[in-house]
Amino acid sequence: MSNSNIVTFSIIIPTYNESENILRLISEIEKNLPTSDFTEIVIVDDDSPDGTGKLVENYINQQNNKNQKEVGAKTANCKVKIVHRTGKTGLIPAIMDGVKQSSGRTVIVMDADFSHPPEVIPKMMLESKMNPNSIIIGSRYVEGGKVVGWPKKRKLLSSGASFLARVGLNVRRVKDPMSGLFALPRELIENISIDTKGYKILLEILVKNKEIPTKEIPFTFIDRRSGKSKMDNGVILNYAKAIWQLYRHGQKSGHVTIDEKVNKGSVLFLSKVGRYYTVGISGLIINYLVSFLLANDVANSIRLLSNVWYLEASIIGAAISLTSNFFFNKYWTFEDRRFDLGSTAKQYASFIGMSAIGLIIQIAILYFMVENFVPYRISLIVAITVATTINFILIKKFTFKEKVWA
Ligand SMILES: Nc1nc2c(ncn2[C@@H]2O[C@H](COP(=O)(O)OP(=O)(O)O)[C@@H](O)[C@H]2O)c(=O)[nH]1
Ligand SMILES: [Mg+2]
After folding, report:
1. CB of 237 within 8 A of CB of 317?
2. d(Cα 91, Cα 110) in Å, to the nearest integer?
3. Pocket probe mutation, ligand 1, options 12, 50, 91, max atoms within 8 Å of Cβ
4. CATH number of the structural domain spanning residue 141
5. Which of 20, 253, 330, 362 is the 20 to 30 Å CA partner of 173?
6. Residues within 5 Å of ion ligand 2 by Cβ?
7. Are residues 215 and 258 in the same domain?
8. What is the pLDDT of residues 232-274, one digit of tens each?
9. Which ligand is nearest to the CA of 90?
10. Predicted TM-score (pTM) above 0.85
11. Domain count of the fold of the chain
12. Considering 179, 197, 222, which residue would you say is the last residue of a domain?
């Protein structure tokens, strides 16, 4: 008799509509498992409409029958379990449920869509056995790791968010704190109370356990080939649409009058700077409110917005405030009252481009100063002031085609 009923590893895999992936994934994981340890694979399904849960259920029954028939078959070093949940309440609660229903000393969390290749699991297990009290992270951003199949936009969003998290939440020691692939001692995940909405559970654990050693294992993240991502770009797009509609609505009801005879030169440079900064502050307030509303409970009552994680919420907040900044600056700061779609869209694109340059300058200054041990508060003030001023000049000259000093 082997001691095969002592579970060493529990691999928790949350699923929602993964019927095309799940059985293949289970078999790939089993194929790669080291024989020395007993592993349980715990699938946590949120009642997927595509029958993922049923599929796994059938698979488990089949395996049981087979084992009963084949007397003397080699003892398996792995067992599959299914946890059925009744509703889709998000990724983190699903993971936490899976943890509760499992018993391995070490918990491994991974996605079902093959973004996390099954071949890295044994490497992570080995590392975890050598460092049983560490958090082992499957990392896209250490040497040897990479991301395949994401459009530039999503890559940028992800690495930008990682950067913000690392600097802002002081988890600089980890290159990929938002990875969904990690292994850790059960105690670290079992009793943690999760504050954030959304799905970056590792980040939360890292922030709350700064003293725990970490180790990153490079892997190649491959974007899902089948099934649908829950990261819904539609959310951002719908927001932009809503803003545009609101804006058009305001225009139709006559609040905006077209006035072509504005003498731009008559308004002094300084008064425009003043207006520009005022608009900037209004943008900050809008940004703050939107981020705050989206990342909090209010979002749960609006179905479209549930599952918005707080860093994403703040990216959406930034996008909306950028848009309102554009219109306030166009109408008020630069007194440009022409709103035909073609030229407005062109100006808008240019405004975004200039703002992006400003943001890059700001982050570069910030990064440079913080890395050179200037306190974060001071670095932030310097970075924002310099970047905003450069931004103003760029927008004045290139977006609204004014002379810089007029
Ligand atoms: N149980 C459960 N699993 C989920 C939920 N949302 C996503 N998942 C699973 O979590 C993993 C990651 O989700 P995915 O859509 O690939 O997110 P992305 O990689 O960030 O685009 C996949 O295995 C999904 O099936 C959910 O609400 N409940
Ligand atoms: Mg995925």
Report:
1. no
2. 11
3. 91
4. 3.90.550.10
5. 362
6. 113, 115, 224
7. no
8. 554 345 434 433 443 343 334 333 333 333 334 444 677 788 8
9. 1
10. no
11. 2
12. 222
